[in-house]
Each structure stands twice: as C-alpha cells, then as structure tokens.
Amino acid sequence: MKLRLTIISVLLIISGVQAQNADNQLLPGSKTLKDITQNELLGIVSELTSPEYGGRLSGSPGYLKAAEWVASEFKKWGVKPANDGSYFQYFGNAYSEVLSAGKLTWHRTNPGGSVADVEYSFPDDYFPGSNSGSGTVTAEVVFAGFGISAPELGWDDYAGIDVKGKIVLLENGVPYSKNDSTLEKWTPYTYHRYKFRNAAEHGAAGLLYSGKTANPNTSYLDHFIYAHIDTRITEALFEAAGKEYSEVKKQITENFSPGSFSLGQTITISASTRNFPESKACNVVGLIEGSDPDLKNEVIIIGAHLDGQGSLGGTVFPGALDNASGCADILAAAKALSRLKEKPKRSVLFILFGGEECGLYGSTCYVENPLFPPGKTIFMANLDMVGNGTGFNLSSALSYPEIYNHFFDSNENFLHRKMEASEARPNFGRPRSDGAVFRKAGFKTIEIWTSGTVKPVYYHDPSDNADALTPDIMEDAAKLLFLSIVGVADDTAIKTGK
Fold first, then answer.
1. Beta carbons of 405 and 493 less than 8 angstroms apart
2. Burial environment of residue 240 by CB neighbours within 10 A (0 to 12, 13 to 18, 19 or more)
3. Cβ–Cβ contacts within 10 Å for residue 46, how many?
4. Which structural domain range is residue 379 located in?
5. CA–CA separation, 324 vs 49, rounded Å?
6. Is residue 281 pLDDT above 90, yes or no?
7. Terminus-to-terminus CA distance in the chain, angstroms?
8. What is the pLDDT of residues 433-457, one digit of tens each?
9. Would residue 200 count as lying in a domain?
10. Cis peptide before 323 (omega within 30 of 0)
11. How far apart are alpha carbons 424 and 443 in whole angstroms?
12. Is the peptide bond before 293 cis (omega within 30 degrees of 0)?
C-alpha cells in the first residue's frame, strides 16, 4: 500500500513538472500571464467608470482627464509614448453639456376633445438629447418616417406633409436593409446628423427619436430641441392616432413607400444645454518597442474606444461594458507585456480611441495620420464590449489564418473557451466601429467580441456599470490578447502585406 502511494506521488510530481515545463515552453512569461487577474481588471473598470470622469464624453474635461490617467499608467509600466514623445494624438471634437434632464410632456387629446397632460420621467421614459439646443418647444407631432429626402433614390419622407414649426418623430436607419451595392447609395442618409439637419431644413422646431438611447453622434443645431423616447411612447402616440406603430413600420418597408402623417397630438420638449464647438479630444497611444532590430519596424495595433456617453442632467452613464471593459482588457495585456524580460520581436501599439461615440473620430484620425506606415502593420485588433459572456467571437479572423491560428492555439491550449470566428465580408453600410474604419482603410482587422451573454446588456444606459460585467471573461480576454500578441509578434513566417 505504501509502495503504491509512493508511486502515485512520484507520478503526480513528474506530471506537475512536465506541465510546468510545457507551460514555460509554450508560454513566454507564464508567470506574467498569471498576474492578469479579475481584481486588476475590475480595478481599471472602477477607475474609468468613476464619477470623476463624468462618463468620458469625448471632448469634455472628464474624457481628457481619463486619457491622462491611462497615459500615466502607460508611463508607470514603461510603455512608451508613441506620437513623437507624446501619449496623445489630438483631433477636433465638439461636444455639448446637458445641464438638466429637461422635460417631456404629452398634451394628450382624447377622442372627446378633452386634453390631459401626461408627464414623462427621465431616465425611465426618455433621454434628453446629447446635442439638443436649449429651450422649450410645444408643437404638433408629425411622424416623418426615416426623415430622408433622397430624390435620386425615389424617396422623400417629407413629401405631402407640413412640418414647419412642428415636432417630427423619426425612425433610426433607412428603409433598405440588404447588404449590397444599393445599400451603399443609402449610406449618406443613415447618419443621425443628416436626419437632424434635414428636419431643420424642412422647418421642424424639434424632434423625437424613437428608441431610448444616449447618443452624442448627433448634430447641435441652435434652438432645435430634441429627445430620445422609449418605443412605448411611440406606440402610445400611434394608438391615439388610430394606428399601430409596428404595422406602419412594416408597411413602409414592405411596400417600400413612405408612410408619413400627422399624429394629431401635441408634445412639449424642454432642454438645457451648453455647446462647446471648439473643444478637442485625443487618442491615447502607447508603444512597446520590438526587440528584433528589423522586425521592430513592423507593428501590431490593439485598440478600443475610451470614450462613453458622458452624463445627462447630472446622471452619469458609466460605460462599463461599452467600453471600459475593452480598455481594461487592453491595459491588463499591455501591463503584462511590459513586464516580459524579453520583449516580442515586433512592436505593439496600443490605441485607446476618443470620439468613437461621436462618429468614429479617433480611429479616422489615426488612419489619416498613421504612426506606423500601413504597409508595416501586421494587423489591427479592435475590442468593444468585451466583458459580458462565456466565449469569444472573432469577426473577420478566418480571412487571416496566419494571425487567427495564434488566437485559436492560445485559446485551445490555455483558456478553453468557446471561440467562434468569421471571414471578412464587405459592408456596404456606414462604418459602426473603430475596427470598421481600419478595415475600410485597408488594414487587416479583427474585431474581438464576447459571446454567450450572461447578464442583461444596458446599452447606452446609466445602468451600464461594473455590475453588468462578468469578470472571468474579461480575465480570459486579456490573457487571450497577451498570448496571441506574443505569438504573432514572434512569428517570423508572417509577412506584411500578405
């Protein structure tokens, strides 16, 4: 019996040593990998979502303060400033401060002609417009469909209706949904800024956007008042007009014909804001220089947007999942890489983008002013909302097997998560992520997401705080980055431009 126990003990020791040797052989800096912890990641999220930064609205003092904090962490770890001695790459970024929650009142006209005021509340029923003008507008509400006037496409939501001095109720998007070359013709009309300007040019005094979401990617037009409303309010307005909201939308898209009409109801929207048209924001750019004399001139770019939706009337939108999670994953991986005694052969550039929520300003700034020649960029990985789930989804990765194989092997050997991947496919619509901007500019781009959502997702909502995250997937996302970056950076078989 003693002999049997001794043999088992020896076998366990040998197995442990073999596993440790395999770990050290397959994973440079395996001790560093173990330093990536859930506590560290939650600490970063806690910092970025603190009220001190006011929701990190790009262009605001709170955002710039958050950018300074990230740069100070890079400096502490020895991650170098990447922009001619600076951690910052600046660009123009106007923003608006929303001073109060405003007011939204429906002066409901009942069938008998009586009027009853329905007071709505923030944040349950509506969000004040992130770029609304200041003031109050009381007017009749006119449903103007998608708010598009495109004569070359045979479409005009404003044909046959009068919106002068009135409030228009609009839908997001366009009536055409197929991802083909025709959609590309509709793309200029998908932008919120276009819809707002078009409404104002038709004489509208205000706007209700159906769908309650905080969105700084809109136009500031002086004295043009608007709010985002819950679809429940839209449905109620349609019901009061004797129509069913879902049926009207269905008829517009199926018949491919505008269905605008006056709702015969009056609403008051009040807003208090202050616009800052000359403000600036920045990308935060940190570099770990490669160890190989030649390959260090080639770069891997890892990016995530740092900005959020800011605050509305003093209520902060923390932006934990979107996108403090992606930033935390990158920062943890950067810290681990900085601790390696022998750095990877190729350089690694970390970019925390500003202006994503405002219209992809930061990524556009980078591709127009790259810090490394595009021909020397191996690939770009973009992380957005990587903090709630059980697995990974690598969009476009299958089109670059020489890169994807490192992610696949890292997951198979060490993390054992469900990993899905897809090939790069053409997108004829407008870019909706920083990764899409890089892809459109010709960079090999992989977008990393989490799959298998565990907790409710509070998109552009004040409830998007640290409680909405699953820290274990964040830990593995940071480890996946670390492992895969080392693998790609040291793979001499990979060539730029191929």
1. no
2. middle
3. 15
4. 29-93+279-490
5. 7
6. yes
7. 61
8. 999 999 999 999 999 999 999 999 9
9. yes
10. yes
11. 12
12. no
Tell me which amino acid residue 348 is. Answer: V
Question: Which residues does residue 167 pair with via DSSP β-bridges, in sequence order?
Answer: 141, 206
Average pLDDT, integer, range 375-379: 97
**3-class DSSP state for residue 275?**
strand
Distance separating alpha carbons of residues 176 and 253, to the nearest angstrom: 7
The total domain count for the chain is 2
Token pair of 91 as six digits: 């660009």
Rounded Cα gap, residues 89 and 64, in angstroms:
12
The residues pairing with 446 across neighbouring beta strands, listed in sequence order, are 381
Q: What's the pTM value of the predicted model, to 2 decimals?
A: 0.92
Is residue 7 pLDDT above 50, yes or no?
A: no
**Domain end: 224, 245, 275, which one?**
275
User: For residue 21, what is the enclosing H or E element?
Assistant: helix 2-26
Task: Map tokens 């980055």 to a residue.
Answer: 481
Answer whether residue 23 shows pLDDT above 90.
Answer: no
Whether 143 and 260 have beta carbons less than 8 Å apart is answered as yes
Beta bridge partners of 143: 169, 261
Quick one: pLDDT at residue 498?
44
pLDDT at 1 over 60: no
pLDDT (mean) for 21-43: 71
394 domain-assigned: yes
CATH number at residue 143: 3.50.30.30
Burial 442-478 (b: 16+ CB within 10 A, else e): ebbbbbbbbbeeeeeebebbbebbbebbbbebbbbbb
Query: Rounded mean pLDDT of 408-431?
Result: 95
Contact 62, 310 (CB under 8 A): yes
- What integer best gives the mean pLDDT of the chain? 93
Among the candidates 212, 241, 275, a domain finishes at: 275
Distance CA 187, CA 429 (A): 5
Q: Do both 197 and 122 map to the same domain? A: yes
Check residue 473 and give its pLDDT. Answer: 98
Tens of pLDDT, residues 197-207: 999 999 999 99
What pLDDT, on the 0 to 100 scale, is given for residue 31?
A: 67
